Amino acid sequence: MAEQNILEGDIVVLEEIIANINEHSSAVAKRGRLSDMSRELSNNIEAAEKDIKNEIAAKLKEGIDSVSEGYNKSILEEQKKLKEVQSQRDKAKIAGVRKRIDKETVALRDDNEALKNKIKNLYRNEGIPAFCSKRLFFSIFCSDGLIDGLLYFVLLAVFYAVIPGALCFIEGIPKFVYVIYYFVLIVIHSFLSRFIYSKVVIPHIDSIVQVRDLKSDIKSNGKKIKRIENGIKSDKNEDMYGLDSYDSKIKEINQSISDIENKKTVALKEFESFTKQDIIMDIQNRYKSSIDAIRDDLAKTDSDMEKLDSLIKEQRAYISTNYEAYLGKEFMNVEKLKELATIMKTTKAKTIANAIAMYRETH
Fold it and tell me: Vertex 229, ends 227 and 234: CA angle to 5°?
């Protein structure tokens, strides 16, 4: 039929055309179903391989954790012991340092106690008020050095500048309040200063100066004690504190931790070299039969698709050359071809060309 003009064909030719187009459509539809099946099978293989990968990762982690668990527990126990021994050693060193400081500063501390008692006795014997032993008193009436001068200056600044300045931020305070404040302050300052100076300082000036010097000696001793403390605390030599037993125990525990860590490393290497491969092979073997079956189905499906692709290509070329070239794209539709067949069966149209002409007259 490929060598004749199908427009001259009869109802038999037309039905053959319809059958061939239907066969082509069936092949295309089947090819689509095979494509969906191939995609689904590929997805199933990917899902199975992902399951294998996840299960292997989980099993290997479980295995590594299992191997490490016992060693880690032992290491934690040894580290706890190490922490306790180190704490005991620190306490022993602190006690030793404190004892050494006490021993090396006992003379200075005894000297300070003697100086303090001498000051108390001096004040008691001469009837000097107790407040006269405070640093503020010496800063005002018997200063010795820059620090005492600064302390007196700060005291004056607070009463003559800071307090009045703070009052300025309070609304509603009349100006005469400041005048009264300064007047009272100056009166009190002048009266107290003159009173204390005349009643205490002048009569006891020699004793006050002596006390000032004694306090300076106490302060000097305190600095010496502080230097000795800092020197002892910064001394790296710990031989005199009797810490050998603690150091020996610490060394023993550290060696135990190192031995456990080495054993753990060996066990993990053995797991990596042997057990890991067994786990991987076991999991892969359990999935192998099901994955191989899916791969076989996929290979068969892909093979069927290749065959169908060849058939569809041949059908498409045949239909295009032998049918579409004569009938046009308009009548490459089964429904329209069936209408032509109805026309040929119910009218006097003997050829496909006659049926097309009648079809065009009614449409």
Answer: 95
